[in-house]
Write the structure tokens for this entry.
Amino acid sequence: NNYLGLANHPHVKARVKAAIDKYGIGVGGPPLLNGYNKLIEEAEERLAALKFQEDALLYSSGFMANLGVVSALTQPNDVILYDELSHASFFDGIKQTKAKAVQFAHNNLSNLEIILQNFCDCSGTLFVCVEGVYSMDGNLAPLRQISQLCKTYGAILMVDDAHGTGVLGKGGSGTGSHFNCSQDIDLTMGTFSKVFAVCGAFLAGNKDLIHYLRFHSRQYIFSASIPPTVTAAVLGGLDVVEKEPWLRTTLLENAKYAIEKLSRFAFCAKPEAAIIALQLPDRMDIRKASLAFHQLNIFINPIEYPAVATNRQRFRISLMATHTKEDIDCLADAVEEVWNTSSVYNPA
């Protein structure tokens, strides 16, 4: 998921080296005690600005951010409506709350509206939770329409934009900006393990909401702060996102080219960002096929259960700005070769 190639960008590495010289390698405590520093403060301010929000706070991982926000914000009389393809961390967050959780069919606006109608008079708060870019399919949530439904029925909109941040929208703001509805998103989660190629995550929202989470989200309160090396990498990445917009342009051009080259194969969903999910042919053994790709010097992620259902296994391709057209041609040739290799298929 190193979409812009920031893991090896010279500016990012220089910022990390400078941070080590000034701050050392760690902070040795949680943010409310001794774990808050100038780097974290700057990162929060800049990430909030990136998302057109008032404030932000940092978590040790995207998993912890999703656990933290769901468990801290919801009460027993609240109702959470969530897309059936939500991330595993969100499902685990639901397990930690006493709120009622109701699933709706993936990106199905009619189904969502029916459920909103059924629960709009609940005694608590109504939450709608979706992803900006769905990580296992590569398609986008129709955020403009979803945000309008949330307005109509008085729901809070929460968006996990792990794979949209730094990739889509104005200045890399994300999926909300891509659909010109950032102002209608109440709370956004983004991770550092995707475009920034490190560890950690953030939540961005209005000041009151973020202030509340600082003192009520147990995953934030009782976790050690991310180290200066990581924060510096994020700040360096933000510098690059702002100053080198052509990287996003190249990334999306690469994705478009790859989609064209791979169009003869079946996609799990319409690719709309930098992820392409290839549907397995009947009887293909994903592990044998994965080994075949490896032998062709092609790295491609095999996605198996429990990341997806056992009958929905696929190969997930993540494009990068640093890929060349020749790289993508090699990928397409490799897929063609593996798809036509009899030894990767189970007997009929």
